[in-house]
Amino acid sequence: MSLYTLPESLLERWFAQFEFVPGMHMLAASWPSSVTTRELLGLEEPETTTRYLELNLDYIENPGTESLRQAIANLYTRLDAQDIRTMSGASEALSLLILTRTQPGDNILVEDPGYETITGIAQSRGIEVRRFSRQIEQDWKPDLAKLAGLADRRTRLISLTHAHHPTGALLQKEDMQAIAQIAEKVGALIVSDEVFRLITLDGTTAPSFIDVVEQAVVLGDMSKPWGLGGLRIGWVASRDHELLQQLSAARDYSSMSSSAPGEFLAEIALRQTENIMAPRLAAARSNLRRLAQAIATSRQALRWSRPQAGYTAFVQLPFATKSFCRYLAEEKRLLLLPGYVYGKAYEQFVRIGFGADALQFAEDLDILLQELEKWQSHV
């Protein structure tokens, strides 16, 4: 029997080194400024606080409370509570999809660059990972011809992010329909990780994959749009109830269920979406304009394709960025994410997060630009 091991998560190991160092300024976050429990409860009537303080800290049902699942379903066009299962973040859903839908000898198709969770779990199970590219020259749109050429009868999943991580590029409806045709031809399941979908930067609404393609499976969580990563509440949405039952059964071997306080607070946040998201989106749009101006005046030292959604930009520098990012973290207490964590092809990129408070972002960006100019003079 072959032994497979989990590859190291370069992204998470980078953050583990620096994120919680005292005095560190985060300029790589893919989430906005967080919300305190007091702030969240303060958005509702005092009765809600009383109910929270009297909450029984017992187990809750594996699929999630029906009221929370219905609140999540309302984020989509034609879904109900029965189409939703809560998870401990979107990452748990990705892991369980790999565990339940693949076996050694199968393959999955993933975008490049992309998030490591699904590829790491797949490789640890002996699943072949085939990558289709997104390139800056095409504004990070997926290469559908390459995708079609990679798919075959052993392809079990086609995994995408919408909006794309880390570039913020959105899929168009025609892209979704074309991907659905490829998936249908080989019998593959489409998995669309949509934790950034609601964070549109031009004020428009981005459709979910499941609202365009009925057979799609989509994921979401409370961390990115609402700044509530500490709740560890995510979900999977699907009209395939047999698949949802398989995921619930597999969850018995992982988290088993979410936490009662987490689901209670998540339901409040969903009711208060406008109050939570509006000021954070306003700050992000202001920060993005500031970043765009810096890139435009950089004399081509910085290159990007402007993100359409999410709180991150993937910016290309004229040199490999790992040493520069380490210098910033160790000497300036400024944390960026170097592109090497996404693969060798992205060694000249950095991920910049712009979801922070506008004043703090302006200060941190100024430090970055000053240090970039100094670094370039010595490269």
TrEMBL record:
InterPro entries: Aminotransferase_I/II_large (IPR004839), PyrdxlP-dep_Trfase (IPR015424), PyrdxlP-dep_Trfase_major (IPR015421), PyrdxlP-dep_Trfase_small (IPR015422). Residues 58-356 form the Aminotransferase class I/classII large domain. Gene3D superfamilies: Aspartate Aminotransferase, domain 1, Type I PLP-dependent aspartate aminotransferase-like (Major domain). It comes from the Bacteria. Keywords: Aminotransferase, Transferase. Pfam families: Aminotran_1_2 (PF00155). GO terms for molecular function: pyridoxal phosphate binding; transaminase activity. This is Aminotransferase class I/II-fold pyridoxal phosphate-dependent enzyme.
